[in-house]
Amino acid sequence: MTTTTLKLNLGPQHPSTHGVLRLLLELKGEKILSCEPDIGYLHRGMEKMAEKMTYLQYLPTVDRIDYLAGFFYSELLCRIVEKAMEVELPDKVRAIRVMLLELNRIASHLLWVGAFLMDLGAVSPFFYVFREREMILRFFEKLTGQRMMYNYFVFGGVRRDIDFLDGVEEIISILPKKIDDYEKIITENPIFLRRTVGKGILEPEIAFNYAITGVNLRASGVDYDYRNSDDLYRGFDFRTVVLEEKDSWARYKARISEMRECVNIVGQALDYLKRAGVLEQRLINPLNLKLPAGDYYSEIEAPRGLACCYVRSDGGEKPYRLKWRTGSYYSVNLLRKLLVGEYLNDAVAIAGSLDIILPEVDK
Amino acid sequence: MNWSEFERVFNDCELDGSKIIIKSKLHEVIKFVTDNYTYNVLKEIIANDIGGGETELIYHLYSVDDEEDLFISINVAGEAESIVDIFKSALPDENEIYDLFGIKFIGHEDLKRLYMPEDWKGFPLRKDYVQDDTRLAWNDDNNA
Q1: Which fold has domain A6-362?
Q2: Residue B89: which of A39, A209, A363 has the nearest Cβ?
Q3: Rounded to an integer, what distance in angstroms lies between the CA atom of residue B18 and that of residue A33?
């Protein structure tokens, strides 16, 4: 009988990771005995940069923290400044922001569905989701001039008024049918079920201990969604998707169901925007902007879990200290626990199901 | 959370808004609030260089059941107690603070360079950090 173990480097380059992540696995046969993630390949020093820049200079860079959900990070920084300067957002600005955030969430989840299925060896869903994602990105491009790094939210409002909504109407009328199509191909597919059902089970206690938030937590049966207590979403009526299965399949299903809810929220924002008049907003003058000395904190439900921004101001033009909390950072740490005892061929499937984006981890 | 009860057990502390400022016994305090109240998530650990060689650590705890946030703050000089045995999510957080601020967490088994290269000099988020590493592009003139 032999007791030797094998150390295997999974990564840094692997098609299923959005970015570069190295997992150092210790194997016995095909069973994983331990997993140690190695991150930092994409570190850009976002927090150090903030200390050297004014708030206005820093604003365009924050989209890069998570390039698949840039609006969320712009929103966090804008929210910090709005909180500090005590500016209340008008309803139309709130509706525009909610609509864009939720469209962004759909685009992010769509990409995840494609990438996850590709991890499992199914290539064609990737092209289907990109077809739908393209509609959303086209709208973003028309509105902001950018497909990914939008720089559209500004302190106290948005950069320009929305004077066209036909793109959004098309998206929310087509998308539910397309999601039905995905579900027909994927949800009950026997090969998909065999790779995901009962794999990577995440108990709620472990999720709490590892600070897992967002969809991954809700797929473990915990009803926690920051949007419910978020002032931005005041007046919007939506359901929190909670699933009890706790496995990779539940995380897939939760994201699919959440996309349907996002379409619902976008629809409500769209109804409001159709009736709303011209945009009236009181922007904060970003030149010579100085936040009063003190600590500021903002949170938002981003596609990959709870995202937070902390700013300490000493009353100067630049933040004294700025820190980001991102959901993926803790999901990577969870791999230490979740992969142990699983087989190597499931490692990529489980890691993929957590929706880890590496630029968000490395900041 | 019940502030007066907390104050009775740990008399060396004060309340500042929603933030509890403690002077010592970090591990004991975190253990106390997790055991006696419903705080079950450590959302993040924030570090601030406050000058004078001291670093402020802010522990952001959250209770999912009561939807309540709690901030615990402590000033440390170079060393702090690790709470990895209570919250596994402190593992990457403490490692990050070691990497960027140079705080050594006693009891953390795997402190290493996380973002910075293994042979990097200094701790970039400290206020006294000098960017004079010879490998940095903008120091070429100095080394010529």
Answers
A1: Cytochrome-c3 Hydrogenase; chain B (1.10.645)
A2: A209
A3: 42
Give the DSSP H or E segment for A264.
helix A248-275
> Do the beta carbons of residue A308 and residue A325 sit within 8 Å?
yes
Among 3.30.360.10, 3.30.460.80, 1.10.150.20, 3.40.50.720, name the CATH number for the domain at B3-130: 3.30.460.80
ipTM of the complex: 0.85
- Contact of B102 with chain A, judged by CB distance below 8 Å, is answered with no
Contacts of A94 (CB under 8 A, 6+ apart): A232, A234
Contact A264, A179 (CB under 8 A): no
- Residues A49-63: tens digit of each pLDDT: 888 888 998 999 998
Min mean pLDDT across A9-18, A196-205, A248-257, A303-312 is at A9-18
Indicate the domain borders of chain A: 6-362
Residue to test with chain A: of B21, B34, B38, B44, most A Cβ within 10 A: B44
Report domain extents, chain B: 3-130
Angle at A68 between CA A36 and CA A269, to 5 degrees: 135
Q: What is the pLDDT of residue B144?
A: 42
- pLDDT score at B133: 62
For chains A and B, CB pairs below 8 A equal 62
A96-105 burial code (b ≥16 CB/10 A, e <16): bbbbbbbbbb
Q: Which residue on chain B is closest to A51 by alpha carbon?
A: B125
Chain B CA closest to residue A44:
B115
pTM summary value: 0.88
Please report, as a single letter, which amino acid is at residue A283: L
